[in-house]
Predict the 3D structure of the following.
Amino acid sequence: MNDAKRSMKQKAFEGMMEYLLISFYLGVVLSLFTVYKVVILAEHNIDFAPHGFAIINALALAKIILVAQELHFAEQLRDAPLIYPTLLKSFAFTMLLALFKVVEHTSVGMFHGKSLYAAIASSGDGSWRGTICLIALLFVVLVPFFGFTELRRVFGKDRLEGAFFRPRHLLNLPPSVA
């Protein structure tokens, strides 16, 4: 019984750490997008400062990613060369996250009295080009994320994280061919 409780605590701790890491990654990226938007708008003397939304969005999107991963979302190419599941997951999760963002913006817009059409239209900063640009940026941001996730799945968590965060002489790797 003690062992079962320990493993449940370990699973909860690992899940929380994964959630925090995904949130951190998305938070950094979304915050940088916000800072870039602030800089561009400042050049045209337009004040814009929704910095807190990047963190809130990162937390929400990280939760969506974790739930979808638990439901084995987009795992059709699991045994294919790593580029295929990486790109498939990046694309599928981009579409999933974009859908959730549109639903969120639509809900908020309708709450503030906009019509359904006006609320949907405002979800991509008011234009289809803005929506396509955000989707493309999200896809590019998710490629390294899912690339790392797929490498960790294939090589094992300890081995991959060791390669990134431990000195090479401690990894027991074969010597490099010069």
Notes: Residues 2-43 form the longest helix (42 residues). The radius of gyration is 20 Å.
